[in-house]
Amino acid sequence: VRDELGRKMSKSLGNGIDPIDIIDKYGADSLRFAILVGTGVGMDSRFSYDKAENASNFINKLWNASRFVVENVAKSNFEPKDIKELSLSLADKWILTELNSAIQTVTKQYDKFDVGMVCNSVYDFTWTKFCDWYIEACKTSLYEEGESKNTTLNVLVYVLDKILKMLHPIMPFVTEKIYMELPNHIESIMIDQFPEVDKDLTFNSQAKTMREVMTVIRNVRNARNSMNVADNVKTNLYVV
After folding, report:
1. For residues 110 and 216, what is the distance between their CA atoms, to the nearest angstrom?
2. Could you read off the pLDDT tens digit of each residue along the chain, which spans 240 residues?
3. DSSP state of 133
4. Alpha carbon distances (Å) from 214 to 33, 50, 125, 145
5. N or C terminus of the chain with fewer C-beta within 10 Å?
6. Within 10 A of 34 (CB to CB), how many other CB atoms are there?
7. Which bin fits 42, alpha (ψ -120 to 50), beta or left (φ > 0)?
């Protein structure tokens, strides 16, 4: 492990870092993630406080998303069901398709011991696709009661469970803690099965449609930002 400039840590340079100090400030999982992210097979790892800060922010994002899922499950009449038996929405089919793609990619990266790329892959899927897009898209159905709400909760729990298992070798402590809060967990995430691709839950056509919807949303946001329209101001939208 080298410093952020790629220099060997030494007393003469005064660039040594006590891992216990990092753990006390950011947590052990943040330290592990910060050392591994951006590191290729056979390469030295560069450590920086910025990487530890970013890792801590990622864990906070995962923790808040998990709390959102667990709290919604707890306050509803949640019925665990087989995902394949549910009437899935466009957003549900998109996130499940993206999840299969992530599982396939991450499994190959673990098999090659390319753990630095695993960090990048799971980070992107969790932060951008699951938290920023899917959780926001599914909030409407969570305000309702009935089958639609239960379907959304089942998909949220299913996807979160797979995220935790992909992350567990890198972030063992926080993933175990969250996993034990999920319904239908076993005695430890350590002995649960690693996620596998389920081809029956890949919906390429619907996922493509959802990506087009997301592109429209991004363009609308960009147009509003370029015209300095405040977030709380409603405007007319014309799609040509």
Report:
1. 35
2. 887 788 888 787 888 888 899 999 999 999 999 999 988 888 888 888 999 999 999 999 999 999 999 999 999 888 899 999 999 999 999 999 999 999 999 999 999 999 999 999 999 999 999 999 999 999 999 988 888 999 999 999 999 999 999 999 999 999 999 999 999 899 999 999 999 999 999 999 999 999 999 999 999 999 999 999 998 999 888 878
3. I
4. 30, 30, 15, 26
5. C
6. 26
7. left
